[in-house]
Amino acid sequence: MPLSPAEDSHNERHGQERHGQERPGPAESGAAAPGAAPPVQLQTLHWGDPWRWLGAGARDVRRAWGVALFYGLCFWGMALCLAWVFSASPEYVMSMASGCLLLGPFLAMGLYDTSRRLERGEAPDLGRSITAWDRNLGGMGMLVLVLIVLELLWGRASLVVFAVFFDTGMPSTTGVLQAIFRPENWEFIAVYAAVGGSFALLVFGTTAVSMPMMLDRGTDALTAGLTSMQVVLGNLGMMLVWGALIAVLVGASFLVLWGLPLLLVGPLLGCASWHAYRSAVVALPYTPPATPAPEPVP
C-alpha cells in the first residue's frame, strides 16, 4: 500500500536521525557554535575605582612578594638605563622611554598572571609568570608590532621637535634642563609635551586592558586593542585619572634614590592593572581543573 506524503516524510526523517545524517544546529540545541569566542561585556567604571585597584594590587604584592621583587628589580634596571641615556644622549630619551613602554607590558604580563593565580586561589609561580605571554603568541606578536611602530614614530617625532627648536645641534643634558626651566622656551615645552602626550595617550589607550585580556581570554590583538580603546573612551575622565596616577607614581619614583622606589611601584601598578581589567570587562566563568582521583591501593 503506498504511503501518504506525510508518512513518507516522517519515515525519511526518522531514518536520517537514526543514521546520524541530521543533527540539530546550535540554535536548535541551545549550544554555542564550536570555537565561538564568548562575547565581551564591559562594565561601568566609577571614580573611586583607581584607588581600589591600587589597594588590591598592594595586597597581591604582599601575598606574592618574591615574584613582585623579581619584577621590581627588572623595572628598576630599566630606570637605571633610562637615566644613563638621559645623561649621555638626552635627545634619545623619548626613544628609550618608548622602548621601556614596549618592554614594560611584557614584564607586567607576569604580574597579571600572578594576580590571576591569587584571584583563583592558586599559588604564584615565578617560572610560569615569566612565560605567561607565550599562551597567545600570535596575538602578542601582532600587538608588539603595533607598539614597535608607535615607538619608532614617537622617537622620530621627538627628534624632529629637538631639531626644530635646537637648530644649532642637539643640546647636552644641561642644555635640556635649561630649556625646560626657562620660561622663554615655552613653545618648545608645549610642543614637546603635546607630541609626547599624544603618543603616550595612544599607547595607554591601546594597552590599558588589552594585555590582561589577551592573557585571560586568549583574545586576538585587534579585538583586545579595540576593547581597550572602547574602555578608555567610554570612561575617558576616570581613565585619564588612572593614567595620571600611573605617570605621577612612576615619575616620582624616578626622582628618588635613582629610581629605587620602582622596586615597589612597578609590581604595584602591574597588579593594579589586572584589577582595572577585571573591573572594566565582565569575567568569564572559571572552572578549576579536575583533580584526578587517587588510584586504589591493591
Task: Describe the 3D structure.
By secondary structure, this protein is an all-alpha fold. It is built from 13 helices and no strands. Helix 4 runs antiparallel to helix 5 and helix 5 runs antiparallel to helix 7. The chain is globular and about 80 Å long. The N terminus is likely disordered.
What's the main sheet like?
none
Overall average pLDDT: 76
Secondary-structure element string:
HHHHHHHHHHHHH
Q: How much β-strand is present in the residues?
A: under 5%
User: Shape from CA axes?
Assistant: globular
Quick one: how many beta strands?
A: 0
| Terminal residue distance | 65 Å
Structural class label: mainly alpha
In DSSP terms (H or I, runs of 4 or more residues), the helix count works out at 13
Supply database-style keywords.
mainly alpha; single chain; 298 residues; 0% strand
Q: How does the SSE layout of this entry go?
A:
Blueprint lengths: L4 H14 L7 H4 L19 H15 L1 H24 L4 H27 L6 H5 L6 H29 L7 H9 L4 H22 L2 H8 L3 H14 L1 H19 L7 H19 L18
Helix pairs in contact: 3-13, 4-5, 4-13, 5-7, 5-10, 5-13, 7-9, 10-11, 11-12, 12-13
Provide a compact summary of the structure.
By secondary structure, the protein is mostly helical.
